[in-house]
Design brief:
It is built from two helices and 19 strands. By secondary structure, it is an alpha+beta fold. It folds into two domains: about 90 residues, no CATH class; about 130 residues, no CATH class.
Length: about 260
Amino acid sequence: MENIGLVGLSRQVALQRELDVIANNIANLNTTGFKQDDVVFHEYLMPTARDDTFQRGADRRLSFVWDRATATNMGQGAMEATGNPLDVGISGRGLFAVQTPEGERYTRNGSFEINSQNQLVTKQGQLVLGDGGPISFETTDVGITISRDGTISARDGTATGPAQTRGRLRLVEANGRGSLQKAGDNLFSLSPGAQVQPVTERDLRQGFVEKSNVTPVLALSRMIEVTRAYQSLASSIERHDQLRRDAIRSLGSLT
């Protein structure tokens, strides 16, 4: 395959990858706590060929498109009031810690509920972790409140009785960029060698959830741009291929 075809193919693969990422972002516009992904591209310079038989000087280096990675935008999403006392939105830094069959995971989705064992869980049934482990309630608990620092209190049996602490939500943050990777179900896992540390400055909002940080207009406009770029590149490669076929046909007719 000629160089123009190889370079064009590398760009098409990259554009297809970006289109898939954008489509996934748009599909999660209404997913609570979702963080959008962005594709990171890198220029890859083809190493110069070395052959003593070349007589016309050094080869020119070819530049290809390298789909290097997918970066997650951890920017703040808008807060939405729900009125549900078990919904908690994080304003600022931090992630909730939850227990899954695969181990500890982290999320910005603060839409919680109480399971049949009176434990605080996510909508998927994963245990929400506090500073001392899973958070449990009494069967007769009423008037559940969650303070700005994540302390959960409830009144046992009567709405007028004294409030008792049931635990404090564990809020953590990773120790560096690239320390978190998406693990499905709107969860994050730690990259190899990464660690989490407690968040000291907390600002939790009871009765709120954090919406997706995807901006619909920007995502849709970028999807259109990528689609047009892909189509334009495909047309350019097709025209070049047609020129080559015409040249071969013309040369063949001279014999």
